[in-house]
Amino acid sequence: MSARLQLVEAPDGPEDVLIDGLAVFGPHSDDLVRAPGAQDLAAHGAQLGPRPSATGLAGDELLDAVNGHELAGRGGAAFPVARKWQDFLRAGLGGMVVANGAESEPLSAKDAALLQLRPHLVLDGLASAAEAVGAEETVVWLHESATSSRQAVTRALAERRAHLPSEPAVRIELAAEHYLSGESSVIVNSLSGRRALPSFRRVPATTAGVHGRPTLVHNVETLACIGLLARGQQPDRYLVTVAHGQRRTVVELTPTDRLSRALSRAGVSVRPQAVLLGGYGGTWWSGDRFETLGGTPTGTSTPFGVPRPVLGAGVMLALDERRCGLRYTATIVRYLAQASARQCGPCLFGLPAVADLMQVLADGRPRRRDLPKLERFLAEIDGRGACHHPDGAVRLIRSALQVFAPDVRRHLQSQGCLHD
User: Fold this and answer.
1) Which CATH number is correct for 325-412, 3.30.365.10, 3.50.30.10, 1.10.10.10, 1.20.1440.230?
2) Angstrom distances, CA of residue 131 to CA of 95, 208, 209, 357
3) For a designed S-S bond to 128, which of 133, 230, 346, 395 qualifies (C-beta 3.0 to 4.6 A apart)?
Protein backbone atom coordinates (compact mmCIF):
# COMPACT_ATOMS: atom_id res chain seq x y z
CA MET A 1 0.00 0.00 0.00
CA SER A 2 1.28 3.47 -0.84
CA ALA A 3 2.36 5.69 2.01
CA ARG A 4 -0.03 8.55 2.66
CA LEU A 5 0.91 12.09 3.52
CA GLN A 6 0.25 12.76 7.17
CA LEU A 7 -0.09 16.10 8.89
CA VAL A 8 1.62 16.60 12.21
CA GLU A 9 2.27 19.69 14.26
CA ALA A 10 5.85 20.87 13.70
CA PRO A 11 7.46 23.11 16.32
CA ASP A 12 8.10 26.68 15.26
CA GLY A 13 11.79 27.44 15.12
CA PRO A 14 13.32 30.45 16.88
CA GLU A 15 14.74 31.66 13.57
CA ASP A 16 11.48 33.10 12.24
CA VAL A 17 11.79 36.79 11.41
CA LEU A 18 9.24 37.76 8.76
CA ILE A 19 6.32 36.02 10.48
CA ASP A 20 6.59 34.57 13.97
CA GLY A 21 5.58 30.94 13.45
CA LEU A 22 3.31 29.06 11.07
CA ALA A 23 0.39 30.71 9.26
CA VAL A 24 -2.26 28.26 8.06
CA PHE A 25 -4.85 29.07 5.41
CA GLY A 26 -7.65 27.06 3.84
CA PRO A 27 -7.49 25.95 0.21
CA HIS A 28 -9.01 29.06 -1.39
CA SER A 29 -9.65 32.28 0.57
CA ASP A 30 -7.22 34.59 2.36
CA ASP A 31 -8.85 33.82 5.73
CA LEU A 32 -6.39 32.54 8.31
CA VAL A 33 -7.22 29.20 9.90
CA ARG A 34 -4.41 29.36 12.45
CA ALA A 35 -1.60 31.85 12.94
CA PRO A 36 0.54 33.69 15.47
CA GLY A 37 -0.76 37.05 16.60
CA ALA A 38 -0.84 39.99 14.21
CA GLN A 39 1.42 42.94 15.00
CA ASP A 40 -0.13 46.36 15.48
CA LEU A 41 1.97 49.52 15.17
CA ALA A 42 2.93 49.54 18.87
CA ALA A 43 4.20 45.94 18.80
CA HIS A 44 5.98 46.56 15.51
CA GLY A 45 7.73 49.62 16.91
CA ALA A 46 8.67 47.81 20.11
CA GLN A 47 10.33 45.04 18.11
CA LEU A 48 12.13 47.06 15.44
CA GLY A 49 12.06 50.68 16.56
CA PRO A 50 10.98 53.62 14.39
CA ARG A 51 11.49 53.50 10.64
CA PRO A 52 14.60 55.51 9.66
CA SER A 53 14.20 58.17 6.99
CA ALA A 54 15.29 57.13 3.50
CA THR A 55 15.53 60.58 1.97
CA GLY A 56 18.70 62.22 0.65
CA LEU A 57 21.94 60.48 1.62
CA ALA A 58 19.97 57.90 3.64
CA GLY A 59 18.27 56.91 0.39
CA ASP A 60 21.64 56.44 -1.30
CA GLU A 61 22.75 54.28 1.62
CA LEU A 62 19.60 52.17 1.33
CA LEU A 63 20.20 51.70 -2.40
CA ASP A 64 23.77 50.60 -1.58
CA ALA A 65 22.40 48.14 0.99
CA VAL A 66 19.86 46.73 -1.49
CA ASN A 67 22.62 46.36 -4.08
CA GLY A 68 25.12 44.88 -1.64
CA HIS A 69 22.63 42.33 -0.39
CA GLU A 70 21.79 41.40 -4.00
CA LEU A 71 18.13 41.64 -3.06
CA ALA A 72 15.96 40.06 -5.75
CA GLY A 73 12.21 40.31 -6.10
CA ARG A 74 10.19 37.75 -4.16
CA GLY A 75 7.16 37.76 -6.45
CA GLY A 76 8.44 35.13 -8.87
CA ALA A 77 10.68 36.79 -11.46
CA ALA A 78 13.56 37.40 -9.01
CA PHE A 79 14.56 40.63 -10.81
CA PRO A 80 17.36 42.57 -9.01
CA VAL A 81 15.74 45.30 -6.91
CA ALA A 82 18.71 47.68 -7.16
CA ARG A 83 18.54 47.63 -10.96
CA LYS A 84 14.86 48.61 -10.82
CA TRP A 85 15.66 51.52 -8.53
CA GLN A 86 18.52 52.70 -10.73
CA ASP A 87 16.26 52.62 -13.82
CA PHE A 88 13.59 54.56 -11.92
CA LEU A 89 16.08 57.21 -10.81
CA ARG A 90 17.43 57.63 -14.34
CA ALA A 91 13.87 58.27 -15.53
CA GLY A 92 13.60 61.28 -13.21
CA LEU A 93 11.92 62.08 -9.89
CA GLY A 94 8.22 61.51 -9.36
CA GLY A 95 6.19 58.51 -10.25
CA MET A 96 4.79 55.74 -8.09
CA VAL A 97 5.70 52.73 -5.97
CA VAL A 98 3.20 49.83 -5.91
CA ALA A 99 3.09 47.17 -3.20
CA ASN A 100 1.87 44.17 -5.17
CA GLY A 101 -0.21 41.97 -2.89
CA ALA A 102 -2.46 40.55 -5.63
CA GLU A 103 -1.47 36.97 -4.94
CA SER A 104 -2.67 35.44 -8.20
CA GLU A 105 -0.93 32.08 -7.76
CA PRO A 106 -3.79 29.91 -6.40
CA LEU A 107 -1.49 27.85 -4.18
CA SER A 108 0.29 30.80 -2.56
CA ALA A 109 -0.59 32.47 0.74
CA LYS A 110 2.70 34.06 1.81
CA ASP A 111 1.71 37.59 0.79
CA ALA A 112 -1.60 37.30 2.64
CA ALA A 113 0.30 36.12 5.71
CA LEU A 114 2.60 39.13 5.62
CA LEU A 115 -0.21 41.63 5.02
CA GLN A 116 -2.28 40.25 7.86
CA LEU A 117 0.44 39.50 10.41
CA ARG A 118 3.19 42.05 9.64
CA PRO A 119 1.48 44.83 7.67
CA HIS A 120 3.67 47.57 9.15
CA LEU A 121 6.86 45.88 7.99
CA VAL A 122 5.48 45.87 4.43
CA LEU A 123 4.33 49.49 4.74
CA ASP A 124 7.75 50.47 6.14
CA GLY A 125 9.36 49.00 3.04
CA LEU A 126 6.88 50.81 0.81
CA ALA A 127 7.57 54.15 2.50
CA SER A 128 11.35 53.64 2.45
CA ALA A 129 11.35 52.67 -1.23
CA ALA A 130 9.24 55.72 -2.11
CA GLU A 131 11.53 58.07 -0.19
CA ALA A 132 14.70 56.54 -1.62
CA VAL A 133 13.61 56.99 -5.27
CA GLY A 134 11.63 60.20 -4.77
CA ALA A 135 8.25 58.75 -5.72
CA GLU A 136 5.17 60.94 -5.33
CA GLU A 137 2.55 58.21 -4.89
CA THR A 138 2.33 54.88 -3.09
CA VAL A 139 -0.30 52.22 -3.73
CA VAL A 140 -1.17 48.83 -2.22
CA TRP A 141 -2.55 46.57 -4.98
CA LEU A 142 -4.86 43.78 -3.80
CA HIS A 143 -7.39 41.36 -5.25
CA GLU A 144 -10.95 42.53 -4.69
CA SER A 145 -11.72 39.19 -3.02
CA ALA A 146 -8.84 39.48 -0.51
CA THR A 147 -11.14 40.75 2.23
CA SER A 148 -9.01 39.80 5.23
CA SER A 149 -5.84 41.26 3.76
CA ARG A 150 -7.61 44.48 2.79
CA GLN A 151 -9.04 44.87 6.29
CA ALA A 152 -5.60 44.33 7.85
CA VAL A 153 -3.95 46.91 5.59
CA THR A 154 -6.80 49.39 6.17
CA ARG A 155 -6.35 49.09 9.95
CA ALA A 156 -2.58 49.49 9.64
CA LEU A 157 -2.92 52.59 7.47
CA ALA A 158 -5.33 54.14 9.97
CA GLU A 159 -2.78 53.55 12.75
CA ARG A 160 -0.03 55.18 10.70
CA ARG A 161 -2.16 58.22 9.84
CA ALA A 162 -2.91 58.68 13.54
CA HIS A 163 0.62 58.18 14.88
CA LEU A 164 2.96 58.77 11.91
CA PRO A 165 1.48 61.81 10.15
CA SER A 166 4.69 62.50 8.20
CA GLU A 167 4.57 59.11 6.44
CA PRO A 168 3.86 59.09 2.68
CA ALA A 169 0.14 58.81 1.94
CA VAL A 170 -0.91 55.33 0.76
CA ARG A 171 -4.06 54.28 -1.06
CA ILE A 172 -5.47 50.81 -1.66
CA GLU A 173 -6.45 49.81 -5.20
CA LEU A 174 -8.35 46.62 -5.97
CA ALA A 175 -7.74 44.23 -8.85
CA ALA A 176 -10.20 41.88 -10.49
CA GLU A 177 -10.00 38.28 -9.30
CA HIS A 178 -7.91 36.95 -12.19
CA TYR A 179 -4.73 34.91 -12.51
CA LEU A 180 -2.97 37.70 -14.43
CA SER A 181 -3.96 40.56 -12.11
CA GLY A 182 -0.61 40.54 -10.34
CA GLU A 183 1.43 40.80 -13.54
CA SER A 184 3.37 44.08 -13.70
CA SER A 185 2.06 45.39 -17.02
CA VAL A 186 -1.51 44.48 -16.02
CA ILE A 187 -1.10 46.59 -12.88
CA VAL A 188 0.28 49.51 -14.88
CA ASN A 189 -2.50 49.33 -17.46
CA SER A 190 -5.22 49.09 -14.83
CA LEU A 191 -3.90 51.99 -12.74
CA SER A 192 -3.60 54.03 -15.96
CA GLY A 193 -7.29 53.51 -16.71
CA ARG A 194 -6.71 51.03 -19.51
CA ARG A 195 -7.93 47.44 -19.86
CA ALA A 196 -6.35 45.14 -17.29
CA LEU A 197 -4.41 43.04 -19.81
CA PRO A 198 -0.70 42.33 -20.34
CA SER A 199 1.10 44.68 -22.71
CA PHE A 200 2.52 43.52 -26.02
CA ARG A 201 5.24 46.17 -26.17
CA ARG A 202 7.37 45.84 -23.09
CA VAL A 203 8.56 49.29 -22.06
CA PRO A 204 9.81 48.80 -18.49
CA ALA A 205 7.43 50.22 -15.89
CA THR A 206 10.43 51.82 -14.19
CA THR A 207 10.85 53.97 -17.31
CA ALA A 208 7.26 54.59 -18.38
CA GLY A 209 4.66 53.08 -16.10
CA VAL A 210 1.38 54.42 -14.74
CA HIS A 211 0.28 57.36 -16.93
CA GLY A 212 3.73 57.32 -18.51
CA ARG A 213 5.53 58.04 -15.24
CA PRO A 214 8.23 55.82 -13.74
CA THR A 215 6.67 53.10 -11.59
CA LEU A 216 8.18 50.57 -9.21
CA VAL A 217 6.14 47.41 -8.70
CA HIS A 218 7.39 45.35 -5.77
CA ASN A 219 5.97 42.19 -4.24
CA VAL A 220 5.02 42.71 -0.60
CA GLU A 221 7.64 40.23 0.62
CA THR A 222 10.26 42.25 -1.28
CA LEU A 223 9.05 45.37 0.55
CA ALA A 224 9.24 43.59 3.91
CA CYS A 225 12.90 42.84 3.10
CA ILE A 226 13.45 46.51 2.27
CA GLY A 227 11.85 47.42 5.61
CA LEU A 228 14.51 45.32 7.34
CA LEU A 229 17.40 46.62 5.20
CA ALA A 230 16.39 50.19 6.03
CA ARG A 231 17.12 49.33 9.68
CA GLY A 232 20.46 47.71 8.89
CA GLN A 233 19.10 44.17 9.28
CA GLN A 234 19.78 41.40 6.78
CA PRO A 235 16.63 40.00 5.15
CA ASP A 236 18.02 36.48 4.93
CA ARG A 237 14.73 34.62 5.31
CA TYR A 238 12.30 33.36 2.67
CA LEU A 239 8.59 32.70 2.98
CA VAL A 240 7.31 29.54 1.34
CA THR A 241 3.73 28.28 1.03
CA VAL A 242 3.35 24.51 1.36
CA ALA A 243 0.10 23.25 -0.15
CA HIS A 244 -0.93 19.96 1.41
CA GLY A 245 -4.34 18.39 1.75
CA GLN A 246 -6.97 21.07 2.23
CA ARG A 247 -4.69 23.73 3.65
CA ARG A 248 -1.78 25.99 2.79
CA THR A 249 0.89 26.58 5.42
CA VAL A 250 3.31 29.50 5.21
CA VAL A 251 6.71 28.71 6.69
CA GLU A 252 10.02 30.54 6.86
CA LEU A 253 13.36 29.21 5.62
CA THR A 254 16.95 30.35 5.64
CA PRO A 255 18.87 30.30 2.31
CA THR A 256 20.95 27.36 3.57
CA ASP A 257 18.00 25.17 4.53
CA ARG A 258 17.06 22.16 2.50
CA LEU A 259 13.75 22.81 0.79
CA SER A 260 12.40 19.63 2.34
CA ARG A 261 12.50 21.47 5.68
CA ALA A 262 9.48 23.46 4.50
CA LEU A 263 7.51 20.23 4.18
CA SER A 264 8.51 19.00 7.63
CA ARG A 265 7.70 22.35 9.23
CA ALA A 266 4.30 22.27 7.54
CA GLY A 267 3.63 18.84 8.99
CA VAL A 268 4.23 16.62 5.94
CA SER A 269 5.88 13.61 7.51
CA VAL A 270 6.07 11.16 4.58
CA ARG A 271 8.16 11.66 1.46
CA PRO A 272 5.83 12.79 -1.33
CA GLN A 273 5.69 11.13 -4.73
CA ALA A 274 6.61 14.49 -6.28
CA VAL A 275 6.70 18.19 -5.42
CA LEU A 276 5.46 21.00 -7.64
CA LEU A 277 7.95 23.80 -7.02
CA GLY A 278 7.11 27.35 -8.07
CA GLY A 279 3.35 27.07 -8.42
CA TYR A 280 1.14 26.60 -11.47
CA GLY A 281 3.84 27.83 -13.83
CA GLY A 282 6.57 25.91 -12.03
CA THR A 283 8.25 22.52 -12.34
CA TRP A 284 7.66 19.07 -10.96
CA TRP A 285 10.46 17.36 -9.03
CA SER A 286 10.45 13.73 -8.03
CA GLY A 287 10.41 13.13 -4.27
CA ASP A 288 13.97 11.78 -4.39
CA ARG A 289 15.41 14.73 -6.33
CA PHE A 290 13.49 17.28 -4.29
CA GLU A 291 15.09 16.06 -1.07
CA THR A 292 18.53 16.93 -2.47
CA LEU A 293 17.67 20.60 -3.04
CA GLY A 294 19.16 23.12 -0.67
CA GLY A 295 21.75 23.12 2.05
CA THR A 296 24.01 25.55 0.19
CA PRO A 297 27.13 26.99 1.83
CA THR A 298 26.77 30.24 3.75
CA GLY A 299 27.54 33.30 1.65
CA THR A 300 26.05 32.15 -1.63
CA SER A 301 23.65 34.57 -3.34
CA THR A 302 21.59 31.69 -4.71
CA PRO A 303 19.12 30.47 -2.07
CA PHE A 304 18.63 26.74 -1.56
CA GLY A 305 21.22 25.90 -4.20
CA VAL A 306 18.81 26.48 -7.07
CA PRO A 307 18.49 29.42 -9.49
CA ARG A 308 16.33 32.13 -7.93
CA PRO A 309 13.44 31.83 -10.44
CA VAL A 310 13.03 28.09 -9.72
CA LEU A 311 11.16 28.84 -6.49
CA GLY A 312 8.84 31.17 -8.42
CA ALA A 313 6.25 32.67 -6.11
CA GLY A 314 7.57 30.60 -3.20
CA VAL A 315 5.15 27.69 -3.53
CA MET A 316 5.43 23.93 -3.01
CA LEU A 317 2.72 21.36 -3.56
CA ALA A 318 3.35 17.92 -2.10
CA LEU A 319 1.73 15.20 -4.23
CA ASP A 320 1.09 11.94 -2.42
CA GLU A 321 1.13 8.47 -3.94
CA ARG A 322 -2.63 8.30 -4.27
CA ARG A 323 -2.83 11.07 -6.87
CA CYS A 324 -1.95 10.88 -10.53
CA GLY A 325 0.51 13.62 -11.45
CA LEU A 326 -0.69 13.66 -15.07
CA ARG A 327 -4.27 14.26 -14.02
CA TYR A 328 -3.26 16.97 -11.60
CA THR A 329 -1.15 18.62 -14.30
CA ALA A 330 -4.00 18.43 -16.81
CA THR A 331 -6.26 20.23 -14.34
CA ILE A 332 -3.70 23.01 -13.85
CA VAL A 333 -3.11 23.41 -17.60
CA ARG A 334 -6.87 23.70 -18.19
CA TYR A 335 -6.98 26.42 -15.53
CA LEU A 336 -4.07 28.26 -17.17
CA ALA A 337 -5.77 28.06 -20.57
CA GLN A 338 -8.99 29.50 -19.18
CA ALA A 339 -7.11 32.21 -17.25
CA SER A 340 -5.15 33.52 -20.24
CA ALA A 341 -5.63 37.01 -21.66
CA ARG A 342 -6.47 35.54 -25.10
CA GLN A 343 -4.52 38.31 -26.81
CA CYS A 344 -2.01 36.25 -28.78
CA GLY A 345 -1.89 32.97 -30.65
CA PRO A 346 -0.10 30.97 -27.93
CA CYS A 347 -2.80 31.90 -25.40
CA LEU A 348 -5.82 31.92 -27.70
CA PHE A 349 -5.07 28.69 -29.57
CA GLY A 350 -1.97 27.05 -28.12
CA LEU A 351 -2.97 26.66 -24.46
CA PRO A 352 -6.44 25.20 -25.15
CA ALA A 353 -4.84 22.75 -27.62
CA VAL A 354 -2.23 21.49 -25.14
CA ALA A 355 -4.86 21.40 -22.38
CA ASP A 356 -6.98 19.10 -24.57
CA LEU A 357 -4.02 16.83 -25.30
CA MET A 358 -3.01 16.69 -21.63
CA GLN A 359 -6.57 15.73 -20.69
CA VAL A 360 -6.61 12.94 -23.28
CA LEU A 361 -3.28 11.67 -21.93
CA ALA A 362 -4.45 11.90 -18.31
CA ASP A 363 -7.64 9.97 -19.15
CA GLY A 364 -5.58 7.15 -20.65
CA ARG A 365 -7.12 7.34 -24.11
CA PRO A 366 -4.45 8.97 -26.32
CA ARG A 367 -3.73 8.08 -29.91
CA ARG A 368 -0.22 7.18 -30.97
CA ARG A 369 0.41 10.57 -32.55
CA ASP A 370 -0.85 12.62 -29.58
CA LEU A 371 2.39 12.72 -27.58
CA PRO A 372 4.55 13.90 -30.55
CA LYS A 373 1.78 16.39 -31.33
CA LEU A 374 1.86 17.70 -27.75
CA GLU A 375 5.65 18.08 -27.84
CA ARG A 376 5.42 19.92 -31.17
CA PHE A 377 2.81 22.33 -29.79
CA LEU A 378 4.96 23.00 -26.71
CA ALA A 379 7.90 23.93 -28.95
CA GLU A 380 5.70 26.26 -30.99
CA ILE A 381 4.29 28.02 -27.91
CA ASP A 382 7.47 28.40 -25.87
CA GLY A 383 8.73 32.00 -25.78
CA ARG A 384 6.22 33.31 -28.31
CA GLY A 385 3.51 34.75 -26.08
CA ALA A 386 2.76 38.41 -25.44
CA CYS A 387 3.65 37.67 -21.80
CA HIS A 388 5.25 34.73 -19.99
CA HIS A 389 1.94 33.08 -19.15
CA PRO A 390 2.19 30.40 -21.88
CA ASP A 391 5.83 29.71 -20.96
CA GLY A 392 4.78 28.64 -17.48
CA ALA A 393 2.37 26.08 -18.90
CA VAL A 394 5.08 24.74 -21.20
CA ARG A 395 7.54 24.43 -18.32
CA LEU A 396 4.94 22.65 -16.18
CA ILE A 397 3.99 20.11 -18.86
CA ARG A 398 7.57 19.31 -19.85
CA SER A 399 8.51 18.61 -16.25
CA ALA A 400 5.41 16.44 -15.78
CA LEU A 401 6.24 14.33 -18.83
CA GLN A 402 9.70 13.71 -17.37
CA VAL A 403 8.88 13.18 -13.69
CA PHE A 404 5.79 11.05 -14.35
CA ALA A 405 7.33 9.13 -17.26
CA PRO A 406 6.16 5.70 -15.94
CA ASP A 407 2.60 7.03 -15.81
CA VAL A 408 2.96 8.45 -19.32
CA ARG A 409 3.93 5.01 -20.65
CA ARG A 410 1.01 3.27 -18.95
CA HIS A 411 -1.47 5.90 -20.09
CA LEU A 412 -0.18 5.73 -23.66
CA GLN A 413 -0.61 1.97 -23.64
CA SER A 414 -4.08 2.18 -22.02
CA GLN A 415 -2.84 0.00 -19.15
CA GLY A 416 -4.58 2.00 -16.47
CA CYS A 417 -3.12 4.42 -13.98
CA LEU A 418 -0.67 3.39 -11.26
CA HIS A 419 -2.63 5.59 -8.84
CA ASP A 420 -6.16 4.31 -9.45
Assistant:
1) 1.20.1440.230
2) 11, 19, 18, 51
3) 230
**pLDDT score of 93:** 75
The pLDDT score that the predictor gives to residue 15 is 59
Instruction: Please state, in angstroms and rounded to a whole number, the distance separating the CA atoms of residues 383 and 328.
Output: 24
Residues of the chain scoring pLDDT < 50: 1-14
State the Cα–Cα distance between residues 135 and 213, nearest whole angstrom. 10
Q: What is the pLDDT of residue 121?
A: 97
Coil, helix or strand for 349?
A: helix
SS3 371: helix
- Residue 291 and residue 271 in contact, taking contact as beta carbons nearer than 8 Å: yes
CA 323 to chain centre: 24
Residue 300: what pLDDT?
55
Closest CA to 253 of 74, 107, 80: 74
In tens, the pLDDT along 315-374 reads 999 998 889 999 999 999 999 999 888 888 888 899 999 999 999 999 988 888 899 999
- What is the pTM (predicted TM-score) of this model? 0.91
**Domains of the chain by residue range:** 23-229, 238-319, 325-412
Residue 31 in 3-state DSSP? coil
For residue 348, the model assigns a pLDDT of: 86
The predicted pLDDT at position 297 comes to 64
Contacts with 310 (C-beta within 8 Å, 6 or more apart), sequence order: 277, 278, 282, 283
Q: What is the DSSP string of 128-194?
A: HHHHHHT-SEEEEEEETT-HHHHHHHHHHHHHHHHH-TTSPPEEEEEE-S-TTTTSHHHHHHHHTTS
Whole-number pLDDT of residue 196: 84
Q: What does CATH list as the number for 238-319?
A: 3.10.20
Do the two domains 23-229 and 325-412 of this chain adopt the same fold? no
Write the DSSP assignment of 46-98 as a string of letters: HHH-SPPP-STHHHHHHHHHHHHTT-B-SSSS--BHHHHHHHHHHH-S--EEE
Q: What is the dihedral of CA 61, 62, 68, 72, to 10 degrees?
A: -160
* Residue 347: DSSP 8-state: I
Q: Among 14, 13, 42, 9, which residue's Cα sits nearest to residue 24?
A: 9
Which fold does the domain 23-229 belong to in CATH? Rossmann fold (3.40.50)
Phi, psi of 137, rounded to the nearest 5 degrees:
-130, 150
User: Taking the C-alpha atoms of 222, 227, 232 and 236 in order, what is their torsion angle to the nearest 10 degrees?
Assistant: -40
